[in-house]
Amino acid sequence: MVFLCISAGFAETEDIEIDETETPHREDFWLSSGWETALYSIHGYAHGGSLSMGYGDKTSIGFQIIWIPAPEGIDNLEINVLLRRYFRKTETFKGIFCQLMLGSVIFIAEGESAFQAGSLSAGLTLGWRIPLGKRFYLEPTVRAGFPYFTGAGVSAGLSFKQPGRERKAKESKENDEQPLLPFLPVVDDSEWLLTR
């Protein structure tokens, strides 16, 4: 009796899959405008508006312009460079932040084209960014500094986040039993031993 034994080969296939996963946002360009109040009046707080923009990661650099007219007929124009730092480690561009501001303030009298006086402007701002969807946000803030002593505000803004994409190569090895000659029958050796 002739028995045909077929040896099976095992082909090892290696598949490399490229998985693009979106990493946390690395950079953010944001633009906002809002309402501001500060102690620029001898009678108390004066109210005005602000325009801000910045760029960066967990630390942003930018500038801010604040215009606050006082009841005494003096308009106060702040032009500041800002440096902002977010405190949250897991999520960037949301939550509490601290902001340093340094620049100048120009006092403009009504009815005159030239400013009457100027002064150094410096302060510290604490705020909270509240996301409204993927792009919009609200930011209530409080601040202290010179020459306004104390102030507060709330602004609405638009964020242009720059997502970083990271390509990860995943190597998966699959061992599939594939006979070298699939058209030939495979004989079980146990049956041959029983016939002996």
Descriptive notes:
This protein is mainly beta and 196 residues long. The protein has one domain: Beta Barrel (Porin), CATH 2.40.160. Helix content is 4%, strand content 69%. The chain contains one helix and ten strands, in the order E-E-E-E-E-E-E-E-E-E-H. It has an eight-stranded antiparallel beta barrel. Strands 1-10 form a two-stranded antiparallel ribbon. A hairpin with a 4-residue loop joins strand 4 and strand 5. The longest helix is centred in the C-terminal third of the chain and has 7 residues.
List the helices and strands and how they pair.
Layout: E1 9-22, E2 27-41, E3 44-56, E4 59-69, E5 74-86, E6 95-109, E7 117-132, E8 136-146, E9 149-162, E10 165-178, H1 189-195
Number of H- or I-type helical stretches: 1
Helix-strand topology string: EEEEEEEEEEH
Strand content: over 45%
* Strand-pairing-aware structural class: mainly beta
Termini separation:
11 Å
Based on CA atoms alone, the radius of gyration comes out at 34 Å
Give me some keywords for this one:
elongated, eight-stranded antiparallel barrel, two-stranded antiparallel sheet, Porin, 196 residues, 1 helix, disordered N terminus, mainly beta, 69% strand
Brief synopsis:
With 196 residues, the protein is mainly β. It contains one helix and ten strands.
